[in-house]
Amino acid sequence: MLRSASMNYSGDIGGIASQASLLQTADGHIGHDPVLPAAKVASITDYAEGPPEVWTLDFGAVAHGLEVGDEIDVWIAGVCSYGVEISAKTDNYIVVGKASTTGPSDVTGLPVDGLPVASTAMQQVLLDTDFDSDLVQAIGLLCAKAAHVTFANEAGTELIKAVTLTAAELWHWFIGGEEANPLGADKDVGRVMLSHGDTSATPVLSLGILYDSTV
After folding, report:
1. 40-123 in CATH: which number?
2. How far, CA to CA in Å, does 84 sit from each of 68, 101, 151, 187, 204?
3. Within 13 A of 63's CA, how many CA atoms are on the CB side?
4. What are the domain boundaries of the chain?
5. Which label site among 30, 110, 153, 178 has the fewest CB atoms less than 10 Å from its CB?
6. What is the rounded distance in angstroms from the CA atom of residue 162 to the CA atom of residue 211?
């Protein structure tokens, strides 16, 4: 049974109306729409220059429930530092900075001087999903809040693609256009990690993939 992915564009640029439609069919699809938990409020209280950079997050009187070895995303002034690992903890603070194999080697967006007062942290939501990048025909990501998505192999030892989503804006790719497959060639995706930085929201993050499984 054939599956399809479609996209319709319409708009007005400089008084000139434009409209276009995209349609792609294939015999397989993958769909996920998990609800992401709210991020946890924290303050950055200590910092050591890297790489890898190391900093302390203090959650005040609120127990964070995280463990040593957990992989988390830290949102600092709207910028996501993804895939960092907890190296030490108490009930109310954590020390992070051991870069995971699927995260950055340092912390994006964290200034050496004048530490931001507040940040948020969230343990990544893990999707156990498996597909070959060479079979992908179309892919789409959407979340009502600013979010981060990391594609990696099954073991989590190879970063395949990291995507930062603007709130309520679709990120997508269709085969056949000028842009190359953003997941690359001959990549075996085995896990997808998700997060967002809002402390009061539990948004749905939608992931849709159209793929051709007939080889």
Report:
1. 2.40.30
2. 11, 9, 15, 23, 23
3. 3
4. 3-35+125-211, 40-123
5. 178
6. 20
Q: Does residue 121 contact residue 199 with C-beta atoms inside 8 Å?
A: no
- The fold of 3-35+125-211 is Jelly Rolls (2.60.120)
Q: Which of 173, 192, 34, 187 is nearest to 102 (CA)?
A: 192
Note the pLDDT tens digit of each residue in 24-59. 888 889 999 999 999 998 888 887 766 667 778 888
Distance CA 151, CA 161 (A): 5
Please report the sign of the dihedral spanned by the C-alpha atoms of residue 47, residue 71, residue 80, residue 136.
Answer: positive
Identify the pLDDT of residue 106. 46
Q: What is the mean pLDDT of the chain?
A: 84
Residues forming beta bridges with residue 72, ordered by sequence position: 84, 123
Determine the residue type at 137: Q
Candidates 129, 51, 60; CA nearest to 97 is 51
For residues 6 and 23, give the distance between their C-alpha atoms in angstroms, rounded to a whole number: 4
Residues contacting residue 60 through CB under 8 Å, at least 6 positions apart? 41, 43, 92
Summarised one tens digit per residue, pLDDT across range 161-190 is: 999 999 999 999 989 888 999 999 999 999
For residue 196 the two structure tokens come to: 């967002």
97 with 53: CB under 8 angstroms? Answer: yes
Instruction: Output the six-digit token pair for 55.
Output: 């900093």
Q: Which class for 200: exposed (0-12), middle (13-18), buried (19 or more C-beta within 10 A)?
A: exposed
CA angle, 79 then 74 then 110, to 5°: 55
* pLDDT average, residue stretch 131-158: 93
